[in-house]
Amino acid sequence: MAGLYRTTAGGLAAKDVDTVTIQFELIHGDPLKMPLKLLSVVTSVHSPLQRQPTPLRHILWERVVTERAAMRPARKVFRPSVPKRGSIGRSERILGVSIDRTKHDFTVIEEGIVQAAELNLEEYRIILRAHRWPIEGIELVTIKDIRPYLEGRRRSMLQRRAALGL
Fold it and tell me: Which DSSP string corresponds to 33-82?
């Protein structure tokens, strides 16, 4: 699937990101299939005024909370425990990921079956969000035809509407 998002600084996940960021996202996997198995590749152009690292630990926290919510029984007397944002993820590490056959060093943080990674280049950034999709060994390529991703988005939206009875 493909997605286009506009993020404005000030929210929980965006407080350390450029003032306004427009992100283009390519999603691999099926977000409606359980257990969830997804890889999102997000790209954005840097603002000329400000360039700060993305809060990877927050991205990771969101994925961990999503996983825990999906795993809990439908009827539970006690509320599920939500981990604190700062307590998620091991230490950051560097991982070489090939982009168009050239290795680049991504900063990676992970917790169990979820990973978040970032590469900041001069003009743009790439963020990887993986859920049961190990990023070790993946190779990224420049996509010139996004029609299959747009078709995937259209099909996913139709499935969601059908599931909701719309």
Answer: SSS--EEEEEEEEPPSS------HHHHHHHHHHHHHHHHS-SS-SSPPPP
> Contact, 75 vs 54, CB < 8 A?
no
Q: What is the pLDDT of residue 160?
A: 77
Residue 32 has which token pair?
């409606």
Whether the Cβ atoms of residue 21 and residue 4 lie closer than 8 Å to each other: no
- Which residue do the tokens 């790209």 mark? 43
- Amino acid letter for position 163: A
Report how far residue 6's alpha carbon sits from residue 32's, in angstroms, rounded to the nearest whole number.
23
Instruction: Say what the pTM is.
Output: 0.71
What residues of the chain score a pLDDT lower than 50? 8-18
Whether a cis peptide bond, with omega within 30° of 0, leads into 35 is yes
Cα-based angle 122, 2, 23 (whole degrees, multiple of 5): 35
